[in-house]
């Protein structure tokens, strides 16, 4: 029995986390959850959105599933997500973007992966106030981090039998920082002769994703571009409520729903647990429990294809509970 840290989070987080736990129980997944609390709702007692107990649990278990967490904007504590990534050196953010049959969207047959460097770039948080007239943010990129994320992208392409890796950049303007990124990706590409390679300026990449998303396969990029493009890509297949996320390091992996905590619908039994459930499926494959992952994914996709128990965010009238129950029913058949 593998012990995994579960962080339910804020807003709808506890509800969708409970749905995942119930589905895992129905599938008899050999996992024991260690539940710890983080987020805005623990601030009053803990004086921090990220208590030490959360860090200790992840350090011990090495794998965590995390619901959405609210972080103050513009002041106060730094993002819990960023803090976790930097604490555990989770240098690779993986966002699979795949069309779901049964979801009405502008596009069909999308199947791509965004591979985002997770620790550097403008998100390193190196900022300075210049009197009361300006502020400065510094973009830091290193050869080590660039080569590391490039290797993740090419290894993923090999493992998933994908054909093309595209490096996304703005080296025409940021010739040193993004130029270094391209140099590093090109160096790593030399070790993967079977994988096709392409480079795309980030603004052109955005246009191409909107016009012809089916042509994209594996996209590798720095932190800021990855944050923006991964959300753009989520919109191509129905929104952030449907897509999973994984943050991977050499020793620790945290899987998460990438959408917000949606406090306006919390407690109403109308949230969609798909993003967190899809993230838990990624987690199972990471843990070499692919048979359970396949079983749960098949049941979830069958519910979407049936179209009778979809939640309101994807055009249905089902509750969180009824959507979950339908997945469980298909698992236990």
Could you characterize the architecture of this molecule?
With 333 residues, the protein is an alpha/beta fold. The chain is built from eleven helices and twelve strands. It has helices spanning 13-26, 43-46, 52-61, 80-87, 143-159, 177-189, 202-211, 223-236, 274-286, 290-306, 320-332, and strands spanning 2-7, 31-35, 63-66, 92-98, 111-117, 127-130, 134-137, 164-169, 196-201, 218-221, 244-248, 253-257. The strands form two sheets. It has a ten-stranded mixed sheet, with helices on both faces. Helix 1 (13-26) crosses helix 9 (274-286) and helix 10 packs across helix 11 (320-332). The longest helix has 17 residues, at 143-159. It is globular. The two termini are 24 Å apart. 45% of the residues are buried. The model has no long low-confidence stretch (mean pLDDT 94).
């Amino acid at each position: 029995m593998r012990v995994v840290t579960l962080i339910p989070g804020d807003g709808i987080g506890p509800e969708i986390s409970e749905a995942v736990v119930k589905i895992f129980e129905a599938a008899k997944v050999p996992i024991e959850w260690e539940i710890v609390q983080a987020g805005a709702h623990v601030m009053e007692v803990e004086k921090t959105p990220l208590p030490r107990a959360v860090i200790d649990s992840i350090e011990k278990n090495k794998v965590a599933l995390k619901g959405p967490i609210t972080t103050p904007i513009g002041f106060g504590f730094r993002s819990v997500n960023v803090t976790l990534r930097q604490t555990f050196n989770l240098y690779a953010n993986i966002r699979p973007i795949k069309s779901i049959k049964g979801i009405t969207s502008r596009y069909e047959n999308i199947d791509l992966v965004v591979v985002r460097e997770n620790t550097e770039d403008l998100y390193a948080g190196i900022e300075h106030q210049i009197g009361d007239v300006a502020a400065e943010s510094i973009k830091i990129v290193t050869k080590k981090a660039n080569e590391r994320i490039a290797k993740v992208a090419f290894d993923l392409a090999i493992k998933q039998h994908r054909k093309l890796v595209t490096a996304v950049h703005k080296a025409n303007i940021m010739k040193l920082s993004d130029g270094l990124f391209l140099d590093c990706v090109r160096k790593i590409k030399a070790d993967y002769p079977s994988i096709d390679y392409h480079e795309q300026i980030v603004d052109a990449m955005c246009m191409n994703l909107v016009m012809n998303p089916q042509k994209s396969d594996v996209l590798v990029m720095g932190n800021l571009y990855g944050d923006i493009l991964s959300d753009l890509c989520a919109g191509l297949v129905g929104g952030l409520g449907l897509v999973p996320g994984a943050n991977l390091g050499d020793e620790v992996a945290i899987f998460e729903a990438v959408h917000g905590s949606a406090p306006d619908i919390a407690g109403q039994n109308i949230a969609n647990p798909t993003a967190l459930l899809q993230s838990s499926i990624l987690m199972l494959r990471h843990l070499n429990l692919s048979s359970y992952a396949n079983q749960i994914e098949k049941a979830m996709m069958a519910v979407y294809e049936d179209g009778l128990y979809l939640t309101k965010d994807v055009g249905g009238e089902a509750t969180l509970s009824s959507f979950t129950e339908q997945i469980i029913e298909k698992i236990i058949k």
